[in-house]
Write a structure and sequence with these properties.
single chain, 285 residues, mainly alpha
């Protein structure tokens, strides 16, 4: 068995994304080195999920590893790829018909939820494991749903939305995004029967590691690691919001002091002259 698979479709997709991003960089005056680094990190995450022993183990042995693969494709690679877009680069993408409408917060949330739930229905999940074509489609849809989900959160991409969410609204949006994955994860964790027939027939890598135990761990992987990525996004939104509020408060406090200095009030430059004049008069007296 080849533990490092070589899937032509994966490498073709990665090259297409790489050269597409390079073209956007050339066309965008606000593109910076950091955008290329973030995008490459996203592509590397996809490669790691699909072209390393992780893919081999997930396809032939363990549902829990398969779920980790899904987390990488849906929740880790997409935000890294979107951080690789400057505002001008994202602006070119939303000119593609339909993209702007589908990346609005509500459609994006619905698309991500539907993809998460539907592909974990046992019939489709098993079909993807038995058919290479369905499996490729599943992975592409997970990556795409992640891009839709994170688009309204990241500043450079959300700047082109008709609905500009406030930081508070973004936090609510992120909270709602955890619900579909929680529904799938809880079903896997608390089920007393294996959902996926494929993993009941594969060889056991570890003695005693039953399909049910594997499925329970798969649910925990989805819940914990999926939440970690969204929690990081929520923390970034919160601390940027908090920092902006702090700067605004300091600006409000500094404005009265500047007015006092201009008008010669307490602490202003004219008050020092008045004090000196009073002292001189008392000495002359």
């Amino acid at each position: 068995m080849n533990y490092f698979p070589f899937d032509v479709t994966v490498y073709a997709g990665l090259l297409l994304l790489f050269f597409g991003h390079a073209w956007l960089v050339r066309k965008a005056p606000d593109a910076e080195r950091k955008h290329t680094l973030f995008f490459l990190a996203g592509l590397l995450t996809i490669w790691f999920a699909l072209e390393t022993p992780l893919d081999t183990v997930s396809d032939h042995y363990l549902d829990s590893v398969h779920m980790l693969q899904h987390v990488l494709l849906a929740f880790v690679a997409p935000p890294l790829m979107l951080l690789g877009l400057s505002r001008d680069m994202a602006g070119r993408i939303v000119r593609v018909p339909g993209v702007r409408a589908l990346t609005e917060p509500i459609p994006a949330q619905v698309i991500a939820a539907v993809v998460m739930i539907v592909w974990h229905v046992p019939a489709l999940y098993d079909a993807a494991l038995h058919s290479e074509g369905w499996h490729v489609l599943e992975h592409v849809m997970f990556i795409g749903s992640g891009l839709f989900l994170y688009w309204p959160i990241i500043d450079s991409t959300s700047a082109h939305a008709h609905w500009q969410m406030s930081p508070g609204a973004k936090l609510v949006y992120i909270l709602l995004a955890t619900l579909p994955q929680d529904g799938v994860a809880l079903a896997l964790i608390f089920s007393r029967v294996p959902f996926y027939e494929f993993y009941t027939t594969v060889p056991r890598l570890i003695p005693g590691f039953t399909p049910l135990i594997d499925q329970t761990i798969a649910g925990a992987v989805l819940m914990i690691f999926g939440k970690v990525t969204l929690a990081i996004a929520a923390l970034v939104v919160f601390f940027r919001w908090f920092g902006a509020e702090q700067k605004e408060d300091r600006g409000i406090e500094s404005r009265p002091r500047r007015r006092d200095e201009r008008s010669g009030g307490p602490g202003g430059p004219d008050s020092g002259e008045a004090t000196s004049s009073g002292a001189s008069a008392s000495v002359d007296a």
